[in-house]
């Protein structure tokens, strides 16, 4: 553990006590069940470091950073292909010994898994840790948080970067059993105990205090998402059932890369992936109603060949 020689009040609180308490109260858990770090990427990094000994498993199409952390820490990994409809096959993760990481909602599809399937995966091997990456859960998904009270081997990871618009403050948190939080603390206190600075801790506390504001923001994003999905379907697009602040879409009338470029020429940036399985798709981040109307009007023009 850390030697606490630097008592100077000039340093920030390495335990982030006030913020932990605020989050614990918000989510109905104890402070000892909360871990805070410099963005949830930081937590994922620690997680692969500490639980990756027996290897790691996650889907072939998911958050791109998982393979980066595996390569960095020499963790052997297996990526199970999503089913044809882009859903995650729970069977692939049941009874395995490897550290399992599931983004729910998944990226870039935005699709969610049934909570009963997630529970089956967790319950199938109590010795193995399952991490549920809930970066996008506040846009209509269901959180696995209740499962952290029932099972000691599940860690739920969330962030202030998406639903709370604080990506630049770098603040992520995880909720799980005391034992899992202690594993993460060991690494944090052995590397950089002060990795959540004082300004960020304060920003986090105020954001939790103003939770209603963010819940409202998320509701607006969800409304704009449903508007955009409706318009795109009207234009003949295939759209996955996204519960995130982005949608994943393709058209039979124009290729993914072609649409991406045509939009870029009009000053609208969407994300195109070159991976074979998803190269016909684009991920479209949901913005304001005005931005989404502009996006739809550009897509309409592009399809008309204008
Ligand atoms: C954005 C994102 C993260 C990382 O968020 P930070 O807290 O900004 O590090 C982790 N996982 C997924 C799936 C994300 O989309």
Distance between the termini: 64 Å
Kindly state the percentage of residues in helix. 40-55%
Q: What's the β-strand tally?
A: 11
Bound molecules: pyridoxal-5'-phosphate
Assess the beta-strand content as a share of residues. Answer: 5-15%
User: Taking strands numbered 1, 2, ... along the chain, how are they ordered across the largest sheet?
Assistant: 1-7-6-5-4-2-3
Shape: globular
Order of helices and strands: HEHEHEEHEHEEHHHEEHEEH
- How many helical elements? 10
Radius of gyration, CA atoms, in whole angstroms: 20 Å
Could you name the ranges where pLDDT drops below 50 across 5 or more consecutive residues?
A: none
- Quaternary structure classification: single chain
Mean pLDDT across the residues is: 96
Structural class: alpha/beta
Question: Quick recap of the structure?
Answer:
Helices cover 40% and strands 14% of the residues. It contains ten helices and eleven strands. A seven-stranded mixed beta sheet has the order 1-7-6-5-4-2-3, with helices on both faces. It has a four-stranded antiparallel beta sheet with strand order 8-9-11-10, covered by helices on one side.
Please tell me about this protein's structure.
The chain has 306 residues and is of the alpha/beta class. Helix content is 40%, strand content 14%. The protein has 10 helices and 11 strands. A 7-stranded mixed β-sheet has the order 1-7-6-5-4-2-3, with helices on both faces. Strands 8-9-11-10 form a 4-stranded antiparallel β-sheet, with helices on one face. Strand 8 and strand 9 form a beta hairpin. Helix 2 (40-51) packs across helix 3, helix 2 packs across helix 6 (178-191) and helix 8 (211-234) runs parallel beside helix 10. The longest helix is centred in the C-terminal third of the chain and has 24 residues, at 211-234. It starts with 16 loop residues before the first helix and ends with a helix. Bound molecules: pyridoxal-5'-phosphate. Pyridoxal-5'-phosphate binds next to helix 2.
